[in-house]
Design goal:
By secondary structure, this protein is an all-alpha fold. It is built from 14 helices and no strands.
Length: 273
């Protein structure tokens, strides 16, 4: 069949077999396209990445930029995966800067792609330099970050039981960021029992952080459990905690205005001398 200018090029490109590994045919169709948009570039980059031709994916990405087409979020995720596979941190950094300039929402998929490229690049430096301890700490931080992102996604999507199940099945002890993500789910969807549980976990992990006691008091105050508020107040006094409004509050400033007002009033009550 003769390819003409009336041929639906984007559909032909999608129907070419990159997923089957025939990137030669895909490239042929792509080169014959009179106009290449971001979707067509993304299909080619994704195709090369999926068959393990990371260098060709990055060549296509650089060619895309040189021809004046700007990547979207889907393009960036696929290009970052190719960067991670090929070990090209420089292009990964360029994509990260492009993401910042574009003011995109950093969702879980794009965030994990950035974590992956930076993690691999930094791990490579640790391997060549022999920094084993640094590598261990980085690995722990990256794993924690990925779990935190997933818990945050589930909690804000009102999949709180699934978020808690993920935490319980983790192979390491949950950190402050992970319990904080679960607590944020309580604020968004009003699961009181889960919020209380997460708040106590934060107190256990950082007993000297006064902000967590304030959040716990807020939970009790909202339900009119003033005897429990008094118990928290006593705990604060017994532990001689400082009246520190600058402590981390795991996203307190993102709460509705009425919640912030309650937080301030409870803070005054809890730390009343």
């Amino acid at each position: 069949m003769t390819i003409t200018s009336r041929t639906p090029w984007r559909r032909r490109l999608h129907e070419s077999p990159p997923a089957c590994g025939d990137m030669g045919m895909c490239g042929k169709v792509f080169d014959e396209m009179p106009v290449r948009d971001v979707v067509s570039w993304t299909v080619v980059i994704s195709g090369f990445k999926d068959v393990g031709k990371f260098d060709d994916a990055l060549i296509a990405f650089e060619r895309m930029i040189s021809e004046g087409a700007m990547p979207n979020q889907v393009t960036s995720v696929n290009a970052l995966a190719a960067c991670a596979g090929y070990g090209d941190l420089d292009i990964g950094v360029w994509i990260h800067e492009h993401v910042r300039r574009s003011v995109w929402a950093l969702d879980v998929i794009l965030g994990n792609a950035l974590i992956d490229i930076y993690g691999r690049g930094m791990f490579s430096s640790c391997v060549h330099s022999g920094f084993v301890d640094v590598g261990r700490r980085m690995f722990s931080s990256l794993v924690d970050g990925k779990y935190g992102c997933m818990v945050d996604l589930l909690a804000h999507s009102n999949c709180l039981d699934e978020a808690l199940r993920l935490i319980e099945e983790m192979l390491f002890e949950p950190t402050v960021s992970i319990w904080g993500a679960l607590l944020a789910g309580y604020r968004a969807h009003g699961n009181y029992e889960l919020g209380e549980f997460a708040a106590w976990k934060l107190v256990e992990l950082e007993p000297q952080n006064s902000a967590y006691y304030v959040m716990l008091s807020n939970l009790y105050a909202e339900k009119g459990r003033w005897s429990d508020v008094e118990k928290v107040r006593k705990l604060v006094k017994d532990r001689r905690l400082k009246k520190d409004m600058g402590s981390s509050t795991v996203g307190l400033l993102e709460c509705p205005l009425e919640y912030m007002i309650l937080s301030i009033s409870t803070l005054i009550y809890v730390f009343r001398m």
